[in-house]
Design goal:
The protein is α/β, with parallel strands linked by helices. It has 5 helices and 7 strands. Helix content is 31%, strand content 18%.
Length: 137
């Protein structure tokens, strides 16, 4: 299959090489599950982040980004906007460099804080599922 042509921000995000999904879910109907499965479908190294879930779709899940071994460099955020600022702080503490707020997870203050801290941020744009291509099996 031909490689997708990604806009520069998405291409840079996908080139990061290690990924986390904050808001991972065991419920296959939820985006926290679909986004994690999307990374797995594309053979990308991914972990989930959720305070109470031990594993998801065969991927390891950690209670925080800081608890994820090796510190994922790029983070998909699939969580309520009210949690976004805390997630940005967790990402900074964990050494993450890139954040992708999935549609519905954006909080303007958190996006501004992440950009002010020097992180690369995708917000108000396409969903990772659309950008990468996802089949709901």
């Amino acid at each position: 299959p031909a490689m997708h042509r990604h806009p520069p921000a998405a291409a840079a995000f996908l080139a990061a090489g290690s990924f986390a999904v904050v808001g991972a879910s065991a419920d296959r109907a939820k985006y926290g599950n679909k986004v994690l499965r999307c990374y797995l479908q594309h053979g990308l190294p991914v972990v989930g982040v959720h305070p109470k879930l031990p594993a998801c779709e065969g991927a390891a899940v950690h209670p925080s980004l800081a608890a994820a071994p090796g510190g994922p460099r790029a983070v998909s955020i699939v969580a309520p906007p009210a949690a976004a600022l805390g997630i940005v702080q967790d990402a900074l503490a964990a050494g993450c460099r890139q954040l992708w707020f999935q549609p519905g997870a954006e909080d303007p203050a958190a996006v501004a804080a992440a950009r002010a801290a020097g992180l690369a941020v995708i917000a108000g744009g396409p969903c990772l599922l659309v950008a990468l291509g996802f089949h709901d099996d």
